[in-house]
## 1
Amino acid sequence: MMHVEKKNFIGCSRDAFFSVGAPVEEALSSNFNEYVVFPGFCDVHVHFREPGFSYKETIATGSRAAAAGGYTSVCTMPNLNPVPDSVSHLEQQLSLIRKQAVIDIYPYGAITVAQKGEQLADMEKMAPSVIAFSDDGRGVQSEDMMRRAMILAKNSDRLIAAHCEDNSLLCGGYIHDGVYAQNHGHKGISSASEYVQIERDLRLAEETGCKYHVCHISTAESVAMIRDAKNRGVDVTCETAPHYLVMDDSFLQEDGRFKMNPPLRDAQDRHALLEGITDGTIDMIATDHAPHSIQEKNRGLSDSAFGVVGLETAFSVLYTHLVKQGVISLEKLVELMSVNPRKRFGIPMGNSFTVWDLNETRTVEPEKFLSKGRATPFEGWVLNGKCIMTLHNGKIVYRA
């Protein structure tokens, strides 16, 4: 093995990487000095669609797509069939994970039965087998229900990871209630539909002492509220996604690959999110990888399903548009994509690494994704950074 400078290892141990031994020697070419080694990335917000919707994604395709993006740990959301709201329903998902996953997959348990918000799920019995609790895809509308869920989560030493959305404020909207919606005759989703529920949950988290995590924040008000709550000592963390950091509603096109929930907000919101990243208010970046079939995403903005894929583009998008533009350092990006999510959710690193050629330029071509999903707002973008290899627990799980 040829000599590799210490600077090529960002946020991980050089000795631990080389302890993998022969598989690395066989896989890497002689230009290894041009590569950078990172700890395996960790995404706390993905949708792998099994059981119930394997035509969209499977544990096998989702985990391979994650490995291709440098991820070695992911947390899967519970909008499945059956919903993991009981031990028996959860076991169906766990069985698939044991058989098909090439990386570590940690499932969420649902907060409410069938994610309907009417009755609490069997949280206490599921707690030892889930990473946290969420009804992602839906906001918990009842304040009393969320309070009781937070108490149960605290007693079980688990987080509540909340999709914050007040249904009474949606008014049939499907993109941001901004200039694009007004100019093109679309129904808009107000920013208040997100931050009003965040405000409620922060108050409940402060009251109950629950460990609370806010999913995919997208508005300036959300950033400000979470910043204030942290200053008050509330045990809260939050995530945003790559598309909210590098795009706003001025990027919208009449295409379902620009439709996600929450929607792309305006430039002011995007700038506030960037401030939240740099000042530490936003703790991590998650993809909200949400694959659908081609048929479900080719119906335009109004009728396509919500959700875009992101595991295979996340690092390159963020490296190109945040690190290379001087917004954050490369070390900070690794904290946001690996260190912080693992620390908050208690996910071990293990012997997991990902190797990147940061000099490589590539064009985003969805037809080459390992994911079944093809809908990405970054289609056609030219990005810096190519994943050369991902190793997990001493095995190569992806090689370019």
## 2
Amino acid sequence: MTDVVTNARPARSPLPTLFLTAFIDLLGFGLTIPLLPFYAQRYGASALEVSLLFASFSLMGFLFVPVWGELSDRVGRRPVLLTSIAATSLSMLLLAFADSYPLLLLSRILQGIMTANLSTLQAYIADVTKPEDRGRAMGMIGAAFGLGFILGPFFGGLLAAQSFRAPGFAAAALAAVNFALALRNLPESLHLRKTELPSDGASLDAKDKAPSTYREGASEGPVVMEPFGAKVIGRVLVRQATLAPLREAMADKAIAPLVLVFFLQTFAFTNLEATFALFTQARFNFGSRETGFLFGYIGLVVVIVQGGVYGRLSRKHEDLALARAGMVLISVAMMLLVLLPSRPLAYAAPPSSAGEFVRRALPLWLILPISSVGNALINPSLSAATSKRGRADRQGRTLGVQQSAGAFARVLGPITAGFAFDHFGPSAPMAVASIGALVAALLVARIPPVSNPT
């Protein structure tokens, strides 16, 4: 049996609930970040084992973002989101009750799997927004993620000072609240598309051979969804294991360049993220506290741009033009970091006061907003551009492949950055980031704008 949903629009927009869902999702995730290394050390974990707690999370995102995305194309966005949010709460409880390193690692693996629902959130947005509003909506979700990521570690540090188990319990409670809100306020979005989904894997795979063109609904019939069960999950996992979605995306001339650009841009920016603390230590003698303030500054600029400025820009400029501008800004900012002089003798000791820190960091206060604005422009623009070029009945899968490419870049980027830092100096990762962003901008300039079919 298949579930048929009629084309009735909800009385109110689900976007505020999506924003809150994304915010709570990242707030809960951020709560656990400050305690993980110390929690693991209580059970005798080495530095390598601590790093595996973070690497395993990213690896699960790389593997499962496309799984959740394609599954949501088949069974609906709502059941996928509800399942992933509920299971996130359970994984956070496992973290809170963990009394050994293997249980900590298991909880991180489950968190990585269950929070890999970004492509499903983005596909939901594609379902419920008009093309001209899609970039703004993507930006708002990005701002929600950024805000949750900024506040999460702050409150997580306060809770961890009381008990190592407290952040896990708090994150589980937030996920439970998130589930309740989504259960009540998020209707199924596939019915807004007016596109009939096939009811079995064979017909879906056959349809995949059609060229990718943007359409705001391909038929006037009801949306047909498969039942959420082991059979459909198995088919999706088999397709992912054989890299079918990736091969299909890279064979699509409209989608492949955007996936490549997203990978390259994410790879470039992670060179900054991975070694920024080491760079500020080498150039300014900053410690973890000072670098934490700078990361918060970066995040605040991103939230402000994506939450406010980006919406107005997206109405006036084409998605890829904004993405290209963002990449140029990042390239310029990274090159300015490269040109900063080596540590002066006056910086032989760490800053002795907040005023000295502010004065010493003056070049960074000026340069970092350039890269932050660039980053804020790129991600929602590329997501919106990919959504508009993808078929209406495969939004989750297409966006999932793109986000998976980004996750893979976040695995490779830190490795490259660390190698460059060790062998070529503190500025080398910034040079790699600058060149990578510039190459990405040149590739974007060769992609033609989307044209609405008649």
## 3
Amino acid sequence: MKQHMRAWLGTGVVIASAGLVLAGCSGTGGGTSPSPTAGELTASSDALTVMIGSSGDAETKAVTDAVAAWSGTSGTKATVVAATNLQQQLSQGFAAGSPPDLFYLGSDAIAGYAGNGSLMPYGDMLKNQSDFYPSLVQNFTFDGTFYCAPKDFSTLQLVINTELWDAAGLTDADIPTSWDDLASVAKKLTNGTTKGLVFNGEYARLGVFMAQAGGVLLTPDGKAEANSDANVEALTYVQDHLKDGSFAYAADVGAGWGGEAFGKALGAMTIEGNWITGAMSADYPSVKYTVAELPKGPAGAGTLQFTNCWGMATDSPNQQAALDLVEYLTSAEQQLAFSKAFGPMPSVQSAADAWKTQNPALVAFLAGAGYAQGVPTQAGASDVIAAFNTQLETLKTADPKTILDKVQSNLEALK
């Protein structure tokens, strides 16, 4: 299976040419035990089971090889299981009292697993704790406790078809740095069946404009601010250009996602994450493109980031070995190897310079780490955002404030 996209909703979500395959972990575990105490790890000679939601053969092989190398050095046996349905298999494991020791966990699932005591809070025990990007640590912090190590991450930036850009008479000096600039170049790039900017009609893409306007859905302390003036301004900006035809949703040009629209020249620009590189090389190898940071909005730079962590089960009988394995898998050296094998960006700051050297054309994605917003992690927020996505499908003709008022109401009901 080709990796086209890591969706913001949970783990192991990929888009293949045939459609969307969900292997995510957006639910909660089956345990109801009290929250464990950080600092107390189990230890035994038991083998470890590591469950992943893989994007394909390359990721499965890379993780399996890395775990085997650690096992050979540590003397602890470990098996990697590539789940066909991660959410379901995790839930079954927890319900049966035999969950995997380690597993991929999306930031949207942290509240559920941590809240019911299924997740071991080992974050503060990591030797490399200070090396993780602070924003990623925040994604996996629940009730003030850092639960699990971010395994990698991605951000959204602007991807530009250089052939169409040149044909429109645009140069490097025209790469947009403001909303006005973006609107201007999108209009110039709109020609025939090609729209200037095409992206998925969902919060996981439109949220970048909200961030650039200074808006959030939920503040770090859980206060709902969905219908803020900043968010209304952001959606109104997008709506204006959906109406004038220079922006378009992927579905409205007959594409399954922004990368497909971009690859087929239905969009001269798109908003996507670094996963698009794999899709382009696999499906549209002749399309030349460049990646630039998204333009600043009224409040400055803004984008969204998506990440998963290495969840550790409270019921694991060998947590000390599991912790050692996590430290191995999240080391700069190993994360750079994973990046080379299947594309994610390392979650540790010490790998940044090497990653930039190895991926000079993709530096804009890593630049977003300094100002990216994570998606809301509060329990129930993913359901609210799913409803928000349905409303966003009608943004071209609907009232932005009315849409956001509904999101506000739904978020306030979570408390």
## 4
Amino acid sequence: MDLNDFIKNFAEQFDETDPSEIRPDTAFHDLEEYSSLIALSIIAMIDEEYDVVLKGDDMRSAVTVEDLYNIVCSRV
């Protein structure tokens, strides 16, 4: 699994946020568009693309996109 591909898939969950704003060190909870609905679509994307099931606690504990990537990597 590649971090850049993960970031691309992650960025696709946002309609109004420019993909260039999403980097490994992006604190995604602080993005203006981030909401519980976006969190659910990220969880669904991770399940579909990587066959990893995340819980709400995983989303809350991850601060950056790379944190989330590392959680997913640890469960692949």
